[in-house]
Amino acid sequence: MLVCSPFGQESIRFHRMLRVLSDRLASRGIGVLRFDYFGVGESAGDDDEGDLLGWRDDVLIAHNELLRRSRATRIIWLGARLGATIAAIASSQLPSPADRLILWEPVADGRSYLRELETAHARALADAGSPSSSTTPTAIVDEALGFGVSAALLEQLGRLVQADLETAKAKQVILVLPPHQTAGAALAQGLARSGLQTRVDEFSHVFDWSSEEAMSTALVPAPVLEMLATHIEAASDE
Amino acid sequence: MNEIAVSFGPGKHLSGTLALPDELGQRDVGFLMLNAGVINRIGPHRFNVKLARRLASQGWPSLRFDLAGQGDSDNAPQAQPFDRQIVADLRAAMDHLERTTGLKRFVIAGICSGAHRGLAVAQEDERVMGLWMLDGYAYPSSRSRLQRYLLQWRRDPAATLRAWAAWPLRFLATRLSRPAPAADGGEPLEIDYGHSTPAPDDFAAMLDKLDRRGGRVFLMHTGGMLWRYSYAQQFHDVFGDRPFAARVRCDFLPDIDHTLTTLSAQRRVIDAIAGWAGEVFGAQDAASKQKPA
After folding, report:
1. In a 3-state reduction of DSSP, which class is residue B134?
2. Is B151 touching A (CB cutoff 8 A)?
3. Does a structural domain hold residue A224?
4. Are B112 and B195 in contact (CB under 8 A)?
5. Nearest Cα residue in chain B from A218
6. 20 to 30 Å CA-CA from B148: which of A14, A17, A172, B204?
7. Cα-flanking dihedrals φ and ψ of residue B111, to 5°?
8. Cα–Cα–Cα angle for A165, A171, A174, nearest 5°?
């Protein structure tokens, strides 16, 4: 399984979950590759050197590395949030379709996502007690929630629309979405219209994606671990 | 600079990343960075990565790593009680950096609970020769207490009056059952899992122990600690009569938040650490290189 992590603070929140999930899968014989995109986490590059196209190519490099090291005959991709978006876009570049794409709350509208980041950034500063902070969001210029953002990434996010995800190439797509989400339903319909076998899993647990709180919030909520493991193990058993 | 992913410790249960300068041997100390709260070894907003790269560019090797059961690290094969395990993990990290670089003196850079952990291991391992502590322990002075009351009053006069009126009851409750909540409007930021703050004399003794062996300390308090640390001279007002005080650097950065959420805050703090390291340990590097072989 190849993991495509979310962006920024969401990636930090998801990190331990992925470690625990990877252990569980590895103990059942499923190899997992987790990696950081260029300019993210432990990878080379500064924050502001990353962009969607580069990260798309990073996913393809990681895919080939996983194939080379694991000699697996089938590869499942798991992407979360912006990582799901990057996974969908990257899969369109594969010579043959991915066996299964599991896309958890993908970002299908870049402008909405930027607004979410703006709101979370303002809230984080206010919650952190920064004396000069305000809860009023301001447009992202070069940073979001403590991470540098390149002009290219901002521009690409500003243009990102659902149709970009509909270029995905996979034998099956699992969309994990909050219940009754209109945008998610539209994405499912769009993927199906593009000829992708698409299944929606409505998942009611709310994962605290961007919180900086260490206490009173679970890093590895059992329902999330179970949901992800179930989808991946089901795919590997087929 | 080279960055190398490593596993170390008994059973190789700890995961970390070495950041090595192009040329080893320029410096006499190495840096260790660890988790801040439950954030993995990259640090809040990737701060540890940015700091490690900056230090490496100035010749200082570092190892950033995840404590047992955090980030990418496994649980310890024979887990010890929480406090002991942290000390064991930090010592294992020093062992690894020593084996890799030949260095025998280390600085621990810790944020919040990470700062507390650095101080704890410095009591037990004489290889720790420096501590950078962001929003670690803070102790009130008369002036900071007054400022805290004024801050409370300005923020919410009615709630402050209610809190003050309830003070005798709170005092009694605190005596009967610890730990007590911060009912006075304060916002505790320490993530110490119920561990109490050392008494001022105990804290002073810990700094003194490090000072006596030539160790150096750089304390930093952000605006996120305003309830506990509210003016630049607070540390020196509380501990100024101690012999180590003159050698402790203490910066007050009220316009920066606890997790360094802005890039400018990160740059400012990294600049300060790199500058401090150069002043304190750079001079020692030069002195040691003048010694005859």
Report:
1. strand
2. no
3. yes
4. no
5. B38
6. B204
7. -110, 130
8. 60
Report which residue type is found at A86. I
Q: Does A9 touch chain B (CB under 8 A)?
A: yes
Q: Do A167 and A88 meet the contact criterion of CB atoms below 8 Å apart?
A: yes
Which residues lie below 8 Å from residue A166, measured CB to CB, with a gap of 6+? A190, A191, A193, A194, A196
Identify the domain containing residue A6 by its residue range. Answer: 2-109+160-237
Task: Mark out the alpha helices in B26-133 (DSSP H runs).
Answer: 47-57, 82-101, 113-122
Q: Which among B6, B33, B39, B252 is the top mutation candidate for probing chain A, defined by the most A β-carbons within 10 Å of its own β-carbon?
A: B39
Determine contact: A219 vs chain B, CB below 8 A.
yes
The answer, for A132 touching chain B at a CB cutoff of 8 Å, is yes
Structure token digits, residue B231? 């003016």
Strand partners, A80: A104
> Which of B37, B44, B226 lies closest to A129 in CB terms?
B226
Cross-chain Cβ contact B72/A19 below 8 Å: yes
Q: How far apart are CA A103 and CA A196, in angstroms?
A: 13
Q: Quote the pTM value.
A: 0.90
Q: Which two tokens stand for residue B3?
A: 């960055």
Q: In B, residues 237-276, which contact A (CB 8 Å cutoff)? A: 254-263, 266
Non-local CB neighbours of B96 within 8 Å, separated by 6+ positions: B6, B8, B9, B16, B63
User: For the segment A34-69, what is each residue's pLDDT rounded down to a tens digit?
Assistant: 999 999 999 999 999 999 999 999 999 999 999 999
Sheet of strand A76-80: strand arrangement: A2-4, A76-80, A100-104, A173-177, A198-202
Residue B135, sorted as left (phi over 0), alpha (psi -120 to 50) or beta, turns out to be left
Number of domains in chain A: 1
Following DSSP, what letter does each residue of B166-201 receive, concatenated?
THHHHHHHHHHSSSPP-TTS-------TTPPPPPHH
Chain A / chain B CB contacts < 8 angstroms: 82
- The β-bridge relationship of strands B62-65 and B106-111 is unpaired
Angle (nearest 5°) at CA A213 between B155 and B79: 135
Q: B83-132: per-residue pLDDT in tens?
A: 899 999 999 999 999 999 999 999 999 999 899 999 999 999 999 999 99
Q: How many residues does chain B have?
A: 293
Report the gap between the CA of B284 and the closest CA in chain A (Å): 31
Q: Is B185 left (phi over 0), alpha (psi -120 to 50) or beta?
A: left
The pLDDT mean for chain B works out to 89
Chain B residues in contact with A148 by the CB 8 A cut-off are 263
Class of domain B2-141+194-290: alpha beta
CA atoms of A20 and A26, how far apart (whole Å): 10
Tokens of A112: 């909405």
Does A148 fall in a domain?
A: no
Predicted ipTM of the assembly:
0.92
